[in-house]
Amino acid sequence: MVDTPRWLTDEISHFMEGLRFSRADVEVLLDSQKRNINAVAEATHIATEGAASVSRRQAEILQNALNEVATMIRELQASGDPHEALTTQADLIKRTFESALANARELAEMVEKANTEAFEVIKRRMGENLDEIREAALRQTARKKAG
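^ thats the sequence. predicted structure below, dont judge the formating
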């Protein structure tokens, strides 16, 4: 949760008072904006954590690839027969290709998951904003009818 600096709250309150909003309306508006800021902060945190997870996984993939290359070199050196070496090389290329595809798919899914979670936070807050606007309009209509 983000704490809004007091000077900013005071400035916004002063500005809103000039627009002839009631103190209650100003408080509702400020509270709504705080929730907006918190939603953006939460979405940013989710996206940042997602990027960090992808980065960590990429480092793991690189380490695994380096280990796989070392294994391939040993396997190719161990094979003395040229036909066997060709078969071994073809198997290694196939394994490498399949591994690269699986890794790319996994990373894409990780990015998609983080983006979806971050978007859901913003989407939820947008829905709440629409509800707040509707409620404010209903209060304004009720005030006009009463006064």
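The two ends are 38 Å apart (CA to CA).
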